[in-house]
Design goal:
Blueprint: E1 4-7, H1 8-29, E2 34-35, E3 60-61, E4 65-69, E5 80-84, H2 95-119, E6 126-127, E7 130-131, H3 132-153, H4 161-167, E8 180-181, H5 183-209, H6 212-219, E9 224-227
Parallel strand pairs: 1-9
Antiparallel strand pairs: 2-3, 2-8, 3-4, 4-5, 6-7
């Protein structure tokens, strides 16, 4: 018989697992990993609303994508053209970034799988006498290791020609030159930290769903068990 077991700790772990997976996925797809040095606008480009020359803009560069200004258009966020600069994997600017893409993709795939499975832990808490929470926690720990490897390799690619075109000639491995780090990089780091928190918290979710109070509710014949 299927028992729906919902506890505060198991629900919090489920929600956190979903948030972490989406955060890492959005960061990976974003082009805002590096914010390039300011590039002046053309003297002919004038803001129609103010009549003054447009302010310098800063292009952004991601692992496989970029955002840059469309020339001869009124300056606004809509004038930024964003998309992949690499049509295939081999065209990613640096071998280090290729490795970063592989490790991040593997970690994100694991996190998305765990996030999907976590939704069903309310109904199924074990498979083949193995706790789903413990298995998912182990997978999240492995995903966290992949994410760390990817994030450690990413700055090593700052010396590639593509990065130097955005960050200036002084950019090199682990030195961003004239670039600054964008929100996507920090989001990926934050998501990695939360991934390990999820891995640890999965044990608490398992304890909460197998507690004596839950067993008492099951013995009383209840199919829906909600505990704070």
């Amino acid at each position: 018989m299927c028992h729906v077991i919902v506890t505060c700790r198991s629900m919090l772990w489920t929600l956190l697992s979903i948030v972490v997976a989406f955060a890492e996925l959005i960061a990976f797809m974003s082009a805002d990993w590096l914010i390039g040095r300011a590039k002046p606008s053309s003297s002919e480009e004038v803001d129609n609303r103010t009549g003054r020359s447009q302010e310098p803009y800063r292009p952004t560069l991601g692992i496989y994508g970029r955002c840059t200004r469309i020339s001869h258009m009124q300056f606004s966020r809509r004038d930024m053209l964003c998309g992949p600069y690499a049509e295939n994997f081999s065209e990613i600017a640096s071998g280090f970034w290729q490795a970063t893409a592989i490790f991040l993709a593997m970690g994100i795939m694991i996190l998305c799988t765990v996030a999907f499975v976590s939704v069903f832990t309310m109904c199924v808490q074990s498979i083949m006498k193995k706790s789903i929470f413990n298995v998912c926690g182990l997978l999240q720990g492995i995903a966290g290791l992949f994410l760390i490897l990817g994030l450690m390799l990413y700055p090593a690619g700052w010396g590639c020609q593509k990065a130097m075109s955005y960050c200036g000639p002084y950019a090199s491995a682990y030195k961003p030159g004239d670039c600054s780090l964008g929100w996507a990089f920090y989001t990926a780091i934050g998501g990695t930290v939360l991934t390990f928190i999820c891995a640890v918290f999965s044990a608490q979710a398992e304890i909460a769903t197998s507690s004596d109070k839950v067993q008492e509710e099951i013995e009383e014949g209840k199919n829906l068990i909600c505990l704070l």
